[in-house]
Amino acid sequence: MIIDIHTHTFPTSVDSFITADELIEEAKRIGLDGVCITDHDGFWDHTEVDDLSKRHDFLVIPGCEVTTEDGHLLVYGLKNYIFGMHRASFVQRHVEQEGGAMVVAHPYRRTYRKQADTDQAAYYEMLERASRNTIFDIIDGVEVLNSRGSEEENAFSFEMAKWFDLPGTGASDAHRLEDLGTFATEFERDITGLDDMIEELKSGRFSPIVLSNRTSAHKH
User: In terms of residue numbers, what domain contains 112?
Assistant: First the structure.
């Protein structure tokens, strides 16, 4: 099954230009099997997500992109924002308590700098510095394909996943309709809802995929 596990909708994500209904209809149109709404630090009521799924006859899964001091975490399995979630270790404890899963989003941010990518030694130094982030010790996967990232940035994310021997995911990180249909995550087993997706994320039975040539400049 092919699911876009990182998307944003307005108004919960104020920087998004698409509503949940628009997101879901476009995901259906382009042939995705499901979509996960992961708005910035905003949790959807799971009942509302179920209603969206039934109304559109399409798999919709709730999640959240949580902003922490160590990076952005795609969190699956929590239901509300709690004070203290700016700390990744705090988020981890709550995710573990709820039996959820976490993926680090666009890990190239704040670590990969193209202007500093002058030779192999400089590149390795950036990788080594990025590897000191303890966030990689608490996650289930690394987002290695993000449609808002450049080819070089996504390549850096791939290297981070390899460094820690973690599985990679792909997603559009959609803020506009045209972002959809770029990258996604392919799961080896059927996903019928949130619990299934968490189980598969925890198991590592997934891989990042390129859906189309919309972001051909970002392909590897």
Answer: 2-218
